[in-house]
Amino acid sequence: METSAVFSNAATTIGGGFHRDTTNVGLLSRSPYLKTRFSFLPPNSKLQNHLRFNLPIANTTNYGTNNAQAVRVDSPLSVPSDTVDIDWDTIGFGLVNTDYMYTSKCALGGSFSKGELVPFGNIEINPSAGVLNYGQGLFEGLKAYRTEDGNILLFRPEENATRMTMGAERMCMPAPSIDQFVQAVKATVLANERWIPPPGKGSLYIRPLLIGSGSVLGLAPAPEYTFLIYVSPVGNYFKEGLSPINLIIETEMHRATPGGTGGVKTIGNYAAVLKAQGAAKARGYSDVLYLDSVHKNYLEEVSSCNIFVVKGNTISTPDIKGTILPGITRKSIIDVARDQGFQVEERAVTVDELLDADEVFCTGTAVVVSPVGSITYLGKRVTYGSDGVGLVSQKLYSTLTSLQMGLTDDKMGWTVKLK
Predict the structure, then answer these.
(1) What is the CATH number of the domain that holds 129?
(2) Looking at the record's lineage, which domain of life comes first (predicted)?
């Protein structure tokens, strides 16, 4: 395999056999080429083992525009073949080790450094790190899709960046700028392009992490933070796919409380649901629906999804008041539903309204839209519909996924093309 690197402006050679061609704005990739704004780090002894990239902070936040200054790199040491040995028809929602991950560091009170792409693998961390001892950590989740015309689409990455910034403020952490977040996501996706499933076979799940990686013994914010992104190809989150799932309402344990951290995507929120979720799955349910911790009568959310209740032409979903995560898919479905003529209400929704609904569905990055086939509450099971997926769920799912996968025109301006 020819070792080459294409840069903009003149032709020179740098360490390790990488060549700079400044007569052309090139493309970073194996094949097809990566397209994102990069500058190559000075050569050093690590260059033979992995690729390093400085990601400049842009002066613009035009996320829908592909501002490509790119590099083409082909090397038997760093670039795997263009194909992967995966049966795309049977892939589920689980971790698949890919090629590269992105990492950047920041001191408390400082700004994140220009990040780098390194081979995916284990990270080294001190046992007294803030994330390990005091749970000082956040994560995000978004997806990249391969389109029929060979492009790659991201869905509203700036929304994830904004939500991470909000969560970081609550958790006393510095956050990468919105632009650095988006550019880092682009870089990580393109560096792992060969792992993106073919059109209609799944997506590349993107997991940005923000953790207190610095050592701290007493209860205090960590002195150092790491922003990290890794990716994995995925299929359906629920084994049912776009088939109705069965939920049970949890009446004893709660996901969040007023004044807590339920409204941000902090890591501890998810560990707290594992016990109830595990018990529910052991009994044959797909997941758990949580109620508010004060009245125990109002819907909050499923373990990792927002909940929607359909009655006639009205779609209701619990309003955001600090105990419910402001889901990006939730926000998108609300806009899509209103655009299609539904009346959407964000308000307190009671258990009785849920049990009397015509249709119920969940939303989330992993599931997109997941119809609910039954709800079990205090031993009573209520089913919804007899024809499988409800009409509203199917319509909203089809509309949103068609937009995400580039099958329809993006009139909302939500997708970001990487090529």
Answers:
(1) 3.30.470.10
(2) Eukaryota
